Amino acid sequence: MSVQDTAANRQNAAAGLGYGILAYLIWGFFPVYFKALAEVPPLQVVCHRIVWSVLFLWVIIGWRGRWGTIRDALHDRRAVGLLTASSLLIATNWLVFIIAVGHAQVIQSSLGYFVTPFVSVLLGFLFFQERLRRLQLVSLFLAAAGVILLTIQYGRVPWVAMILAFTFGSYGLLRKIVTVDSLTGLTVETLLLGPAAIGYLAFVSWQGTSGFLTNGVQVSSLLALAGVATAVPLLLFASAARRLRLATIGFLQYITPTFHFLLAVLLYKEPFTQAHLVSFLFIWSGLCCYSYDAWRGLKEARLKTAAD
After folding, report:
1. DSSP assigned state of 40
2. Is there a contact between 137 and 70 (Cβ–Cβ < 8 Å)?
3. CB 29 within 8 A of CB 233
4. Which of 108, 137, 153, 156 has the CA that lies 20 to 30 A from 227?
5. pLDDT, mean of residues 244-268
6. Count of alpha carbons within 13 Å of 97, Cβ hemisphere only?
7. What's the DSSP call for residue 13?
8. What is the spatial distance between Cα 247 and Cα 168, in angstroms, rounded to a whole number?
């Protein structure tokens, strides 16, 4: 590899890192946003996220003159299949997260997003043969131990956490595989979900149970802004996923649950039990192992590049 190629790869990775950090910071404050929509049924909130995202993305696509890329993606059966699967995964993730926030389970949602990095690392190993070093394996075992201990002490599987972890980890995998850019991919995803979302919102409006324009200006405004709030971090995330290894994406992932955890304990005063503490200590230990290993690997790569 030439010096120019190496420099270009570094710039690409640096851009991906910036996009990823910003996306996870935005997601970190999502509990505050969706707590303000607690009066609206979760499925309606998800449908508003989809519909307003379609409108917002159409404006961006039109402004940038990208209709050709949308048409090409819709004519690519493989891309449509992958984006259909990814759209269902992310919609499920949204719905479960909003339900968790509405039922004062932000701690469990944070647990799910703490576990997601390990799901990403595991998927990277299984699908891309991304090599797992010793400390990465240790971190995976520590995270698994934390989840297992919480399950044993609680007497039930933390389903909210597990669904959030596997849906978002799998979403990242599919977005890395699909051969379309981030803007096109997200637009197609929302277009695929759009008809069902519009149909459901029309149905609840006909029933007289719609949360839009009936719960005050603030709630209606937040629902209308859901498209921007949804699309912007997803675009940033998709851009990061295409530039970074899944393992690196997993490393950045714990920015979001850290904010969720702090909000749950400090702002929303959710109960934090001894079972939570033991489980989180194992998971945080795993994250420390993985972080140290990632930092060491990056340092070794830089020294090798400098020597070449």
Report:
1. S
2. no
3. no
4. 108
5. 81
6. 28
7. H
8. 14
Closest CA to 257 of 242, 276, 229: 276
Nearest to 68 by CA among 136, 76, 246: 76
Give the pair of three-digit tokens for residue 132: 């797992």
| DSSP track, 95-153 | HHHHHHHHTT-HHHHHHHHHHHHHHHHHHHHHHH-PPPPHHHHHHHHHHHHHHHHHHHH
Residue 33 and residue 16: Cα distance in Å, rounded? 26
Q: What does the alpha-carbon distance between residue 213 and residue 223 come to, in Å, rounded to a whole number?
A: 10
DSSP 8-class letter at 245: -
Residue 15 has pLDDT above 70, yes or no: yes
What is the predicted pLDDT for the residue at 94? Answer: 92
pLDDT at res. 290 = 75
What is the residue type of 37?
A: L
- pTM of the model as a whole: 0.82
> Secondary structure of the chain: what % helix, strand, coil (to 5)?
85, 0, 15
The pLDDT tens digits for 159-175 are 898 999 999 889 988 98
